[in-house]
Automatic annotation (TrEMBL):
SMART domains (alphabetical): acidPPc (SM00014)
Keyword DNA-binding: no
Record's compositionally biased regions (Basic and acidic residues): 1-10
Keywords per UniProt: Membrane, Transmembrane, Transmembrane helix
TM stretches of this protein: 37-58, 92-116, 123-144, 164-186, 193-212, 224-243
Gene3D superfamilies (UniProt xref): Phosphatidic acid phosphatase type 2/haloperoxidase
Protein name listed in UniProt: Phosphatase PAP2 family protein
Length: 259
């Protein structure tokens, strides 16, 4: 009779470690982030082209003349209704997005969020949002060169930049909106939407203050919104995958292990 030999794998000894599963691919690494950042630069150039086109429309066409007439009508209506109390309040509200406030608050919040979350992505989000907004604002304002509104200004001296787009409005969106984005990405409670609502209120308050004080036309504020909102959204999409991967790793590390 022929003998049959069964070839079977030796049984795993009790207590020996199980074979480790291959590590999942890390999609939030610096290399992937750099690729997304390159696309963000291209988006920024397209956004700049849009701002320059809109600025040319406002300053060199019949449509722009009609927009300017509407701007002057709204500004004059506000000027005629100024009061000392609102004047003082508008000074504070305008200061919420001054250059000093944005730079100092942005740096403090970015560093604090990065240290708290033990990752670089919060710093990257705010830095890219604010520095990119500043570059887009300065470039478009310099090229468009729209004059400031022809009304009485409450500010003793206005910034040397031109009127379009509103830099204060754009900076407020990127600073306070960026902070709200960080909260949305790391928190899961209902209260995070209160942070978003507060950020929206601050932006609206800053925009109102700039128009009320005669520093900008309403259409300049619109330009600031069209600059900052798409830029902040694009910046968030660039950084969010890294934030998601970081949060996933943190949750896995904090999850209880069962033997």
């Amino acid at each position: 009779m022929s003998q049959h030999t069964d070839e079977t794998a030796p049984p795993r000894r009790a207590g020996s470690p199980r074979p480790s599963a291959p590590a999942p691919a890390q999609h939030g690494g610096l290399a992937q982030f750099a690729k997304r950042a390159g696309l963000l630069v291209l988006f920024g150039l397209g956004l700049l082209a849009l701002l320059l086109g809109l600025g040319s429309l406002f300053t060199g066409t019949a449509f722009g003349t009609a927009v300017g007439d509407a701007d002057r009508g709204m500004l004059q209506w506000l000027v005629e209704r100024r009061t000392p109390a609102v004047d003082a309040t508008s000074t504070v509200l305008s200061g919420l997005a001054s250059t000093t406030t944005v730079l100092v608050a942005g740096l403090v919040v970015a560093v604090a969020a990065a240290l708290l979350l033990r990752h670089w992505w919060p710093f990257a989000l705010l830095a890219i949002a604010l520095l990119g907004e500043l570059a887009l604002f300065l470039t478009s304002a310099t090229i468009v060169g729209r004059p400031r509104p022809d009304v009485d200004h409450l500010d003793a001296a206005l910034p040397p930049t031109s009127s379009f787009p509103s830099g204060h409005t754009a900076a407020a969106i990127c600073l306070y909106g960026g902070l709200a984005v960080i909260v949305l990405l790391v928190a899961r409670g209902w209260w995070r939407w209160l942070v978003v609502a507060l950020a929206v209120l601050v932006v609206l308050a800053v925009a109102f203050a700039r128009v009320y004080r005669g520093a900008h036309n309403p259409s300049d504020v619109l330009g600031g919104v069209l600059l900052a909102v798409p830029w902040l959204v694009a910046t968030t999409l660039t950084v969010a995958p890294t934030a998601h991967d970081h949060r996933t790793v943190a949750l896995r590390r904090s999850a209880p292990r069962h033997r």
